[in-house]
Amino acid sequence: MPDFSTVQIKTPEISDGLGLYVHIPFCFSKCNYCDFNTYAGIENQFTSITNALVSELNYWGEVLQRPKINTVFLGGGTPSYLPDKQKTLIFETINSKFNLDNDVEITMECNPDDITPSRLDQWVSLGLNRLSLGVQSFDETILQSIDRRHTGEDALKAIECSKNSGVDNINIDLMFGLPNQELSDWAKTIKLALETNVSHLSIYGLQLEKGTPLEASVLTGKISTPGDESMADMYETVCKLLKNTNYKQYEISNWSLEGKQCKHNLLYWENKSYIGCGPGASSYVNGVRFTNIKSPKGYVKAIKKTKPNGSDIFHSEAIFELEPQTVPIAVLETMMLGLRLNEGISDNQFRKRLGTSMFTVFEKEIRELVESGLITKNDRCLKLTRRGQLLANEVISKFVV
Ligand code: SF4
Predict the structure, then answer these.
(1) Which of 23, 35, 38, 110 to mutate to test the pocket of ligand 1 (most atoms within 8 A of CB)?
(2) Residue 173 Cβ < 6 Å to ligand 1
(3) Do 337 and 272 contact (CB within 8 A), yes or no?
(4) Which of 123, 293, 362, 385 is the most buried (most CB within 10 A)?
């Protein structure tokens, strides 16, 4: 049993700056593997949800007294699908109600089909300085099998167009373990991604999420997806193909060129504070995690009833669930998020957040993981080995109480 007797949770200061996440719950069509809180066919709610987002941004700007913002991330959903008129309103509110750091990173998730030179110009004029493109694969058949609306060719054109827009920080999302995907298809996608020379690659293995059409097709045997061994080979292939390139891995699923790590994601992994606006968005402020109502209509209704109440930051009617930090949760999160990073988790970081040494709290667990070759340890930090990266969930489970 870990020894929590010396643990004291330290709360990150709001004055150090926050991340700001804005959830845009619209997609043109739904991909068959996706269980995100996002919907197709609710375009009649573009205006009501944008108005609610603007009100919620106003609320946070006011109760936190125009806090400093280090990163902004428009995610979803497909923010690029939201009409630019509505995006402009959101950006105007962010600019007026928050104190954006001089070096602020502002990312928007985009579908390749939504990208045109004139729209890019418009987004850049709003302040956007990072684009994240949902590419997933460059293979036609594979893209169709997961109901993506773009083709591989569209994705390559969108990347080229984005590079010409002057935005020099571009991520592409790729996925492996897709229906009928062979190792050779996957290697081709990675090689094409390398040729694009974008600044950042996020590469995830497919998770079959409960209740998705893809899960149903796999369960009924209509579609097959690569098994665990093939998934491990695909991950190994990425690591091999990206080794000795200009891309450096900095997290289990993320590689970037020098200085182009995603600051917003780092903020999550380093347990810093952030505000999440929009239906189903999560926040972490003053040591409390909380989540908004998931349903878009329910969210709009709740925001209409919300009025700032002095400095009571948890007064928003949209908050559905408050989750004050407990010691076991804070310790688990710190280990889980820190171990995902390539540099591993340092004892210094652990002490900063929890006031004691991880080597004291998890003496036995760390010894066993080192003996089984899943992590390496020195005086200052712990890191996953390559095998540990493949079996990350098993490693993390050791820190669950
Ligand atoms: S575009 Fe992205 S958010 Fe929308 S359904 Fe597909 S995977 Fe989900």
Answers:
(1) 38
(2) no
(3) no
(4) 123
The answer, yes or no, to whether residue 39 has pLDDT greater than 90, is: yes
Contacts 24+ apart (CB under 8 A), 286-289: 286/11, 286/14, 286/313, 287/9, 287/11, 287/12, 287/324, 287/325, 288/314, 288/322, 288/323, 288/324, 288/325, 289/322, 289/323, 289/325
From 23, 24, 26, 30, mutation site for ligand 1 pocket: most ligand atoms within 8 A of C-beta: 30
Model confidence band, residue 367 (pLDDT cutoffs 50, 70, 90): very high
pLDDT digit string, tens, across residues 372-401: 999 999 989 999 998 999 899 899 999 987
**What are the extents of the domains in the chain?**
14-269, 327-397
Question: Residue 360 burial by CB count (10 A; 0-12/13-18/19+): exposed, middle or buried?
Answer: middle
**CA–CA distance, 312 with 94 (Å, rounded to integer):** 21
Omega prior to 77 cis, within 30 of 0: yes
**Residue type at 160 in one-letter notation:** E
Cα 14 from Cα 6, distance rounded (Å): 25
Q: What are the two backbone dihedrals, phi and then psi, of residue 330, each rounded to the nearest 5 degrees?
A: -60, -40
Interatomic CA distance for residues 327 and 162, integer angstroms: 44
Residue 352, token pair as written in the block:
């900063």
State whether CATH 1.20.1250.20 applies to domain 327-397.
no
pTM (two decimals): 0.95
Q: Which fold has domain 14-269?
A: TIM Barrel (3.20.20)
Answer for the pair 225, 179: CB distance below 8 angstroms, yes or no.
Answer: yes
